[in-house]
Amino acid sequence: MNFALARQGLRIGEYRLEPLCEDDAFDLLALFGDPEVVDYMDIAPLTHVSQAREIISWARQLAARDRGLRWSIRRDGQEGLIGTVGFNSLELDRGRRGEVAYDLARVEWGRGVMSSILPHVMAFGFQRLELRRLEAMVTAGNLRSCAILERHGFVREGLLHDYAYWKGRFWDQLIYARLSD
Ligand SMILES: CC(C)(COP(=O)(O)OP(=O)(O)OC[C@H]1O[C@@H](n2cnc3c(N)ncnc32)[C@H](O)[C@@H]1OP(=O)(O)O)[C@@H](O)C(=O)NCCC(=O)NCCS
Questions:
Q1: What do you get for the CA distance between the two ends of the chain, in Å?
Q2: Helix/strand/coil (H/E/C) assignment for every residue in 90-107
Q3: Which of 86, 92, 106, 162 suits a disulfide with 70, CB 3.0-4.6 Å?
């Protein structure tokens, strides 16, 4: 297991993954303030920087307890973050699994950015965190998210009816998983 390495960040070609920090609050407000980006996520579009700070604090608390990891995604030569990626949850005691999560600013969709990054996050999970199972929960209808998971060897294990509740209604969730080789 290597959380110290996660805290140093990862370099992936022209991208850098850095632990999400307080200084990212205004960038995160811009990212999650876009209704299209959060459409299938468990949050309404952010309207105030305090909401971004709450998310950062949640991510940092998870990381402090080795229960999750969230990096900002940065591109060389560009100000600010272009998305985030990591593990929304990590179970290292009664299992060896992590739930991957990712998002990109709308302008970055359809360019293969996350497809460049996800294999490295998966390798980090399997090799550094010694996970047996990576999983992802996807709101039914989030076709881009399904496509990227399927391209990277995740298998759709099932549809969980009315599994989640946010934004005033229940949502079906697809569960995807990929096991270590
Ligand atoms: C999920 C999300 C990250 C996927 O982004 P994406 O850009 O579609 O994903 P990829 O990086 O795999 O890119 C694939 C697209 O880039 C294109 N592409 C271009 N160059 C490519 C390359 N070198 N490699 C792979 N794909 C490439 C593909 O053709 C594909 O485009 P298409 O879907 O228009 O056919 C993005 O839609 C998002 O941020 N959504 C909002 C947040 C969200 O819902 N997160 C998931 C919660 S479960």
A1: 18
A2: EECCCCCEEEEEEEECHH
A3: 86
113 C-alpha to ligand 1 centroid (Å): 7
Q: Is the CB of 114 under 6 A from ligand 1?
A: yes
- Give CA–CA dist 174/139, Å, rounded: 6
Q: Give yes or no for residue 37 CB within 6 A of ligand 1.
A: yes
pLDDT, one tens digit per residue, over 92-136 is 999 999 999 999 999 999 999 999 999 999 999 999 999 999 999
Whether the predicted model's global pTM rises above the 0.85 cut: yes
Q: Is 109 in the pocket of ligand 1 (CB under 6 A)?
A: yes
- The answer, yes or no, to whether residue 80 has pLDDT greater than 60, is yes
The CATH topology of domain 3-137 is Aminopeptidase (3.40.630)
Q: Is residue 45 lining ligand 1, measured as CB closer than 6 Å?
A: no
- Atom 32 in ligand 1: which residue has the minimum CA distance? 110
